[in-house]
Design brief:
The protein is mostly helical. Helices cover 72% and strands 0% of the residues. It is built from 4 helices and no strands. The protein starts with a helix and ends with a helix.
């Protein structure tokens, strides 16, 4: 199993790629706009402080939602937009995500 710091860094990298893709396609800049930069900084902060990193796969599967409601809605919008497009821009990350999601859903079905 990966160590927790590697897992945190990987999650930050994936979220960063998704926010970057979203911003590039919706805000049409090469650099992150201030709103997307704020969301990325917030998401990084949440991942850094996450006490469940050792056992969770993704924030969407977590029972505790640590995002403020407005930031949670923004990250959902980013995920809805970027998720399906990741296969074209970052295919390895997208496939890994699909495999882990499938395994997590199967594991949750087995738990009482």
């Amino acid at each position: 199993m990966k160590n927790i710091n590697d897992k945190r860094e990987n999650e930050k990298r994936v979220v960063g790629q998704m926010i970057s893709l979203y911003c590039r396609k919706n805000h049409h800049g090469r650099e992150l706009c201030p709103q997307c930069r704020e969301l990325l900084d917030y998401a990084d902060q949440r991942v850094t402080k996450c006490p469940f990193m050792e056992t969770k796969t993704f924030c969407s599967n977590c029972k505790v939602h640590c995002y403020k409601p407005e930031m949670r809605e923004k990250i959902r919008e980013v995920m809805r937009f970027s998720g399906p497009r990741m296969i074209f821009y970052h295919p390895v990350l997208a496939v890994k995500h699909l495999v882990l999601s499938f395994k997590e859903k199967r594991r949750l079905k087995r738990e009482p």
